[in-house]
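Hi R.,

Here's the chain you asked about this morning:
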Amino acid sequence: MKNEAQPEAYPAATGFATAPPQTGYPQPGYLQTGYPQPGYPQPGYPQPGYPQPGYPQPGYSWNPAQPQAGFSAYPTPPPQYYGAPPNYGAPPPHPPPHPPSKTSVVVNSGWYSRNQKNKPQSNAVGAASLIFVSGGMNIAWSMGFHGWLFYSTSNHNFIAWFIGGIIGAVLSCFLTNEVAKKHVLIFSSLMVMIGGIVTASARSNGSIALVGSYMDGIANGLIFAPFLALTGEVSVSYMRGLTAASIEQMSFGLGIFLQIIYTTSWNASTPRPSIYAFTAENMKGLLSSIYGLMALIIGSLLCIESPVIMLAKNNDEQGAIDALRRLQRPYTLTNETFEQLAEHKKYLAQNKDLSMCRTIGQAIPTFVRLAFLRGLNAMSICRLVYYTLVYTVAIQYVNGYLGWLIGFGVCRWMGNFIATFCMESVGRKKLTLLGLIVCSVMAFVIGGQYNLYYNTGNSIMLLVFELFAGIAFTATSPYLSEAYPLGVKQPFIAFTFIAEMLVFIVLTLVTWSGPVGATYFFAMGGIYLFGVFFGFLCLPETRRTNLREAQDKFSRFINLGF
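And here is the predicted structure, written out as tokens:
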């Protein structure tokens, strides 16, 4: 049947003639305005596969009576969705995990955040610092900073701690990597605690005090080499200098400072206590026992073994990864953990390639440099320096004597403190050379004016000398932790400590007098001046270098770089 023409006001509706008639709106073939219909052409935009209005399309007819091929007479409209699309508002999918990056870590965070992140590294070796504080107190005691002694003394009393240190250092050479460092620390802590209790309970008994000095010295010598080596192996490169200087030089300096503070104050308040009273000597033993107990607790809970030794001895890679995980906060595996593991493996591979002869050949020049610096350190804090201080300020005994002695301890420790916190910004070499050159000048001036009795100017220069001596020798701690090849690291650190103890012993046995003191300071000024040129030529700058790079720098005897 032929359709009738539609009026001009109403255009012909497109659709299918065979569709059942509908009444009302919408009519078949018409779009609802305002609602895009899925599956249907959108108004105003050409759609592929649909006829475009106003243009005849090939294969399409505008006659409603002729349905197009491939279309049903009763088309089923596609489903319409009026709600939110699927997965609307859901979080984006997680990105796939990436393998550990091989690039190096660039540290741009602040000092506080770096310190908090790497705090477990200093905690792992922090118990040793308490034992070194006790050792510093004994060094100051051997210099002459002690309370009233109600027993006869000899040079043996004043060198006993140094002899004990040598004994402990020799024993540590036989324990190299054979006994866990935590066990060595626990044993040393018990020795310090027992020696302190013995000293605290003694009353006018020189033999008991001698035993306490020996026990404390052995404990210090026993942990010196293992824990300086451990410090270098557990610390990241940008924190190694701060950590090593904090646990060794700054701790010894703090012990010297504390011994000077309480003994001079105690002696000034009680000029002559009773023989049965609790004296400054008993206080020294009590403090040592407290340090030993704290070291025992902290070491038992926080000490972490070296991941380098785990890899070297048993190839325990899983144990090394776990140790590295616990050495940084948060205690999770990160890219930096695997980077440190890879660096430790390279460090091991570099040292395995060295024969024992080549290893010792690299260690001996390093030993000469570091033993020389540690010997200069002993010269700056020995018994002759104490007698010089007393000699120059004796006239001020009534009014200012106490202040000069306390100032001596403050200046020494402040030098250690300043250098420790400048170690990773200024560097090791610059601080060492600065301290040596100022100490050399001060020593020459003190020697030149030594015979001017009661010279206050010399007292001031002696305090300046101690301040810069603390600055000069603080860098020896990180140098010891990173300089020696791995195969002989602990024995040669112990040998360096023994060399320093021998210098202490020789200087303690020298009998002081005015001419001897003047000669000593002239000699010290000349040796320190030689140390400036020696350090400029031979000391490397190892700030923020890994252990491989530090060892390579020390393998060259001439190092002009800063």
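One quick note: The domain at 121-305+354-555 is CATH 1.20.1250.20 (Growth Hormone; Chain: A;).

Cheers,
M.
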